[in-house]
Amino acid sequence: MATEQGGSSSTEYIVHHLTHLKVGEGFWALHLDTLIVSTLLGAVFLWIFYSAARKATSGVPGKFQAFVELVVEFVDNQVSEVFHGNRGFVAPLALTIFVWVFLMNFMDLLPLDYPALIASAAGAHYFRAVPTADVNTTFAMSITVFVLIIFYSIRAKGLGGFGHELFTAPFGSHFLLWIPNFFLNLVELLSKPISLAMRLFGNMYAGELVFMLIALLGFTVAGLDLGSGLGFFGQVVMGAAWTIFHILIITLQAFIFMVLTVVYISMAQAHH
Hints:
- With 272 residues, the chain is mostly helical.
- It has helices at residues 2-5, 10-17, 32-54, 63-82, 90-106, 114-121, 135-168, 178-215, 229-269; strands at 22-23, 30-31, 220-221, 224-225.
């Protein structure tokens, strides 16, 4: 099935699975698969936590409530260790980022061809089911974090204080140092959203490629034909091993994105 759906060769198969369902071309192209899946997963996230809040009891919690409370407490503890201001907005933001990014990453664990087959039955020839393997998604989230960094920095220091810091830190306030200070601070600011976006995108894109290579396993190794039963066995074993390892990756990447967001917002409020 691996080499039949995407084309007659391994290259065509990979290209097929890396092609988005989209409208438009170039910069103005909209990746419909990314928008659909991320929106649905956002709705799933809201439904899960709304259901837990609605059914919450003051007595002994059920397994579902206990799990949700565990996630909320875990995120709140992480935020409280890093962010020392009012957590009224930052803690819910961190929770949203952690769970939503995890759900989007989790789509990478679905059997590779199934989302494409379902989309094909609905008339869509191309469909990618992992929103975080799309650089548009990761940059959209990181740019949002960048806007929050600027907002919290201005709120803590004032517009004048923020501008003054751009030109006077870290080397000093002498006018000859204004330009070096500004460029250093500009590089520091821009590196935050870029590193956030590329770290998440790179890990999920690479994970997606590994699943594709495992799916294509089974032609010839050392003259032994593995295209039948033995090849299928190799796919199952390697796929299961990579899936177990990838569970750690998708969780870790969601955690890193959440923690770095909180760290960057906390740093934005600090004065040099």
